What does this fold into?
Amino acid sequence: MRAWHAISGAARYLRAWLAGDRADDAAMLNRLRMCAVCPSMTRRRKFGRSRTLWCGQPFDPVRNISCGCLLASHKEEGAAVSVTVEGVEYEPAGKLVVGTEVCPRGFW
Ligand code: SF4
It folds into this structure.
């Protein structure tokens, strides 16, 4: 599940995740909660019907403000970690599932 979401964000997330560079559930929940209230976070309804959260504009990083990375995807059945943003439940994806990723604003 998370691996598929990583593909939709960037292949590097998938490579890192498959290599064992994985954030645990507590870290992902903490990250997702911070991203959910961050001024850099944006919501998108692309990639089919799924809804996604991004750090700034997708694939368009702004130094010290946003990285353009995928953060979360509309929650699917079986997700262990999720956060509700404006009535929609999201699970960590892309950047948030990789252990060594960092927040460009230094929030996590
Ligand atoms: S990764 Fe950092 S800057 Fe980007 S949305 Fe999350 S908390 Fe905000």
